[in-house]
Amino acid sequence: MGIRNQIGQALDDAVRALGVEGAVTSPTYTIGHRYKGRVDVSHLDLFRFRGVSAAEWGDLEPYFDDAVVFVEWPEAGEGVLPKPRAEVRLEHGDEEGQRLVTIRDDADPGLRHGD
Predict the structure, then answer these.
(1) How much is the mean pLDDT over the chain?
(2) Which residue intervals of the chain are DSSP H helices?
(3) pLDDT digits over 30-43, tens only?
(4) Domains of the chain
(5) pLDDT on residue 115
(6) CB neighbours of 1 closer than 8 A, spacing ≥ 6?
(7) How would residue 89 be classed by pLDDT, with cut points 50, 70 and 90?
(8) Planar angle of CA 26, 2, 74, nearest 5 degrees
(9) In what order do the strands lie in the sheet with 2-5?
């Protein structure tokens, strides 16, 4: 799942929704985290990448094995990473504390949910 989010839109809740307990932290400096929950969950952050080489893909590939994978800044891996089944865009809404979620690809492209 590719995630295009505005800075400040954490994915902690999405990771926890899959049964992950305990600390969930941003992988900005470590590139990736793998969590055990109801299903295995990988969270990658490609913010510091300009692209993904074949050697870098070799380091990232294990995160995709038998897991739900959240990739922040997926555009850095275009053409190298597996095609996402869904793309999710997280945005701040106009009202205080409002977040908007847009889901594209295999999901209904018009589906939009504000919480």
Answers:
(1) 77
(2) 12-16, 54-60
(3) 889 999 988 899 99
(4) 2-86 (3.40.50.300)
(5) 35
(6) 68, 69, 70, 71, 84, 85, 86, 87, 88
(7) confident
(8) 75
(9) 32-35, 41-45, 68-72, 2-5, 86-92, 99-105, 112-114
In the chain, how long is the greatest CA-to-CA distance?
Answer: 44
Higher pLDDT, 27 or 62: 62
* pLDDT score for 71: 85
Extract the tokens encoding 75: 């555009």
Distance CA 83, CA 68 (A): 13
- Distance of alpha carbon 49 from alpha carbon 60, whole angstroms: 12
Alpha-carbon span 15 to 43, nearest angstrom? 8
3: Cβ contacts below 8 Å, ≥ 6 apart? 11, 70, 71, 72, 74, 87, 88, 89, 90
For tokens 């739900």, name the residue. Answer: 68
pLDDT attached to residue 105? 65
